[in-house]
Amino acid sequence: MSNVPHPGIASVELDEFKYDNRIVRNFAIATILFGLIGMLVGLLAALQLVFPDLNMDIQYLTFGRIRPLHTNAVIFAFVGNGFFTGMYYSAPRVLRTPMWSPVLSRFHFWAWQFIILAAAITLPMGLTTSKEYAELEWPLDVAIAVVWVSALINLIMTTINRRTEHIYAAVWFYLASFITVAMLHVVNSIALPISLFKSYSVYAGVQDALVQWWYGHNAVAFFLTTPYLGLMYYFLPKAANRPIYSYRLSIVHFWALIFLYIWAGPHHLLYTALPEWAQTLGTVFSVMLIAPSWGGMINGLMTLRGAWDRVREDIVLKFFVVAITAYGMATFEGPMLSFKNVNAVAHYTDWIVAHVHVGALGWNGFLTFGLLYWLFPRLYNRPLYSQKAASFHFWIGTLGIIFYTVPMYWAGWVQSSMWQEFTKEGLLKYPNFLETVTQLAPLYFLRSVGGTLYIIGFVVMIYNLWMTAAKGKLVPDETAKAMPLSAIWHASKNEYWHRRLFERKPLALTIFALIAVAIGGMIEMIPTFMIDSNVPTIAAVKPYSPLELQGRDIYVREGCYVCHTQMIRPFRAEIERYGEYSKSGEFVYDFPHQWGSKRTGPDLHRVGGKYPDSWHYNHMEDPTSMSPGSIMPRYEWLLEEDLDTTTTAAKIRAMQMLGVPYEKDYDKIANAELTIQSKEIQERLKQSGIKADEKKEIIALIAYLQRLGTDIKTEK
After folding, report:
1. What 3-state DSSP class applies to 422?
2. Which part of the chain is the Cytochrome oxidase subunit I profile domain (predicted)?
């Protein structure tokens, strides 16, 4: 329903204001720069699974350290900056007002880039919490919260000061994204610091896994999905010169999506030690998610009705169509993967890697590329430098996605089939996990080819946009005029309820969005924390010794959780291969949990006592000496660097504050007990013919590995 002006509207003076294109330009440049870096790091990580020596024996370049750098760079640097680029362009225009605070806008830009640079330094150094997609240590977590809330305030105040009566759908998604990510980040990142670069999650074991994947799944939902849906609702109609297909569908899409998404996190933990009721909730809501997800896809694609002939010629629309299609594919596959029978096949395999990259490369990547191709000619007031180069980028990027994902889907099937196959005699056909790994090398290489093709297209885009900017001139400010909100006549009482309740009231919209996303997390987490039967205790499970605790921190630092899980599922094949399935009570002292999400190497939950100390020592020095054909890098520095025992007392005190039942004043004798256990391991190594220094980090890591899974008695 259109707004009806006052009878004397002609006498109302229009407000004149300017849109700031410099902040848009800055975020666009950051998107391009960090996107290229993040993808190159990802390519290096992919190639290391084919050529393990590519880390060049440099501890800062091992797969375990650079894989979190890759995910953080692509998610928060590339997609994050891409979202901010589109938001700072579109939000002022649909609200017909400049951003409320240019100072907050600039603070948002520079502080966000500082956080990204800090992540690029700290993650390769091994300063990590090991929490998936939230690996940054506590000072950076605090910085993220401050920057995020400042941007949220700026957006809310801009919405309040708008010069249009109603709030367009794109802004709904922006507001919901900001408020939900703030909630997710704060709850998941609560930690107890022991130094400037080390902290422990306040959650342990089962509770930590639930909180982590409540965050992890919804970081995908509210950082990679809903912000980009907001961008789709603005830039697709602009590029197609068509209104969005259905206003009512956008309402259903928005509220159903944000309400249902938040419940789905437990589907990442099917068949684990998480309580069955929580797993079931995750599955049910994941399946329901397909309706609002495809509602958004349909709304996007149907917007192009009558404009499909332009898709053949318009490079922006080509990127948008593939992006929306990839979104539809990923959001169909996600609910399918939440079915237990499908999850049993796909989880911990490269199938999940393929699934994630359909969304990342197709949905986020291609929508970002289309957005940049649309923006640069307008920012620099000249046509795109080369349509042919943009078309080349589109086709080679599409081929890159295919060459990336198809081998990874195939690899997932190969992995799962080999892990679960038995002989006629009832024995595992491939008892040695390494037999699976060696079979995947050609598929990993093809994945690298796909990544290379995608990056080539990215580089071509950079050149194209650079030349567009070089031959044009930035339009720093765009002058616009609009009626003040106070002069706009409010529509009749018969207007649609959603406009009356929410689209006039940005604070109400924000608060109700927060309530919608908070409900699911509360219902899933509160019983898991408050009802003891969800995590039955096991009397035999004791706290880690000081040396084992130090070794666990080395395990975290080196990113071992990236390739190894510590969660044996109740499957015949896994019990036969690894031992007794994992129990929830075994993880009560794991701050945070180390269940992992991918098996590039075998599960380690029952590795304690499986091999002698000498095997672990030799394996870390040269993995191929113990496992011929291994793609694990050498960790020779663990044999050379001294263990920092100055932190032992602080770590024990932190564990006590978190509820670990160490004796009173145990921190004062912790290093003495650490030394005793170190000498015991040193002596066992000596008996095996290995002369090792008791003060080296390798001793602590061996202590931790030999402890894993030994708290309860198991039979082969």
Report:
1. strand
2. 27-530
Return the bridge partners of 477, or none. 20
Angle at which helix 276-288 crosses helix 290-302, to 10 degrees, equals 20
Residue 251 CA to residue 207 CA, distance in Å, equals 34
As a whole number of angstroms, the distance between CA 651 and CA 676 comes to 18
CA distance 451 to 361: 10
Same-domain pairing of 340 and 380: yes
Q: Any alpha helices (H) in 492-596, and if so which ranges?
A: 497-498, 506-530, 546-557, 572-578
Name residue 15's beta-bridge partners: 482
Is 70 a known ligand-binding residue? yes
CATH number of the domain where residue 709 is located? 1.10.760.10
Question: Are residues 501 and 427 part of one domain?
Answer: yes
Asked whether residue 253 is marked as a ligand-binding residue, the answer is: no
Nearest 5°: the CA angle 232, 268, 584 is 155
Q: pLDDT tens-digit profile of 435-460? A: 999 999 999 999 999 999 999 999 99
Tens digit of each residue's pLDDT (9 = 90 or more) over 536-558: 889 899 999 999 999 999 999 99
Residue 564 is assigned to a ligand binding site = no
The Cα diameter of the chain in Å comes to 98
**8-12, 507-511, 712-716: least confidently modelled range:** 8-12
Among the residues of 303-361, which ranges form H helices?
A: 308-311, 315-337, 340-346, 350-357
Q: What is the pLDDT of residue 2?
A: 42
217 annotated to a ligand binding site = yes
CATH classification of the domain holding 420: 1.20.210.10
- For residue 58, what are the contacts with CB-CB under 8 A and spacing of at least 6? none
The tally of domains found in the chain comes to 2
Helical residues (DSSP H) of 49-101, grouped into ranges: 63-72, 80-95
Chain length of the chain: 716
Which residue shows structure tokens 């002698």?
Answer: 612
- Looking at the fold, whether 519 and 594 belong to one and the same domain comes out as no
Query: Around 129, how many Cα atoms within 13 Å sit in the side-chain half-sphere?
Result: 32
CA dist., res. 301 & res. 293, Å (int): 13
Could you check whether the bond before residue 484 is cis, i.e. omega within 30 degrees of 0?
A: no
CA 451 to chain centre: 19
Tokens of 398: 């599409």
Q: Which two tokens stand for residue 232?
A: 């789709």
Backbone φ/ψ region at 308: left (φ over 0), alpha (ψ -120 to 50), beta: alpha
Residue 368 · residue 320 · CB < 8 Å:
no
Tell me which residue range forms the domain holding 202.
Answer: 15-485+496-524
Q: How confident is the model at residue 220 (pLDDT cuts 50, 70, 90)?
A: confident
